Amino acid sequence: MEETISLQDLFKTLKKRAGLIALLTILAITIAGVVSFLVLTPMYETSTQILVNQEATEASQLTNQNIQTDLQLINTYSVIIKSPAILDEVSSQLDLDMSVEQLNSKITVATAENSQVVNVTVQDEDPALAVDIANTTAKVFEGEIKELMNVDNVSILSPAVLKENPSPVAPNPMLNMAIAAVIGLMLGVGIAFLLEYLDTTIKDQQDIEDILGVPMLGVISPIKEEAKLEPITSRRKAGKTNGKKEESAAGYRA
Predict the structure, then answer these.
(1) How many CA atoms lie within 13 A of 86 on its CB side?
(2) Secondary structure of the chain: what % helix, strand, coil (to 5)?
(3) How far, in Å, CA of 68 to CA of 75, rounded?
(4) What is the pLDDT of residues 197-230, one digit of tens each?
């Protein structure tokens, strides 16, 4: 027989397991909060901007080919900034105890669409060190690009500045706790329906009808015991005593 589950049964299951669902949700939020505030290391972010100057050209010479060449040049600069030729010098000047790969993972280079500005963003556990890495990377690139590509069209537009009270960009405790709440809620609902599916005990007459496949004709109401029944031995003794009393009374009457 095909089993169907009504919307009422779903709400009934959720109401029945509401405590379990709430417990798992609160537990997930608590774990996410503890990990975000006490376990994960705060990361700070800063950035500097590098301007790539184009050579002065007449309006008639400004063609699509020139524009495409400029964009390709900026993309090339973005690759050079994160190359060992630049990062080795940055690590040497700042006396950093990290490899080029580790320093590379802290730096992100991005360019706005059809823009001559290159953004160099650095993330680090120490906000002051992040500022030093960003500014040193920009200065080293500005100096090295003259020898690498024999050009002098790069200048620092906006250096990174250390704020008085820097705020970490990661982790985001509120976002992590919100995500954990959703995951805990979904997990609680899933476990609730799983427990309900695995529960095969008979609870009411509807369960009996579903299992047997036949309608119930009647229900016997529970009988409440109002008084305790006397033990059989006590009743037998009481019967014998009453019989002797009746025999004695009959003898006196005779």
Answers:
(1) 26
(2) 60, 10, 30
(3) 11
(4) 887 777 667 667 766 767 766 667 777 665 454 5
Task: Measure the CA–CA gap between 13 and 16, rounded to whole angstroms.
Answer: 5
**Residue 1, helix vs strand vs coil:** coil
Check if the beta carbon of residue 13 is closer than 8 Å to that of residue 196: yes
Q: Please give, one letter per residue, the 3-state secondary structure of 112-168.
A: CCCCCEEEEEEEECCHHHHHHHHHHHHHHHHHHHHHHHCCCCEEEEECCCCCCCCCC
Taking the C-alpha atoms of residue 123 and residue 166, their distance in angstroms, rounded to an integer, is 12
Average pLDDT of the residues in 64-80: 75
Phi, psi (5° rounding) for residue 137? Answer: -60, -45
pLDDT tens track for 86-103 = 999 999 999 998 999 999
**23-36 pLDDT, tens digit each:** 999 999 999 999 99
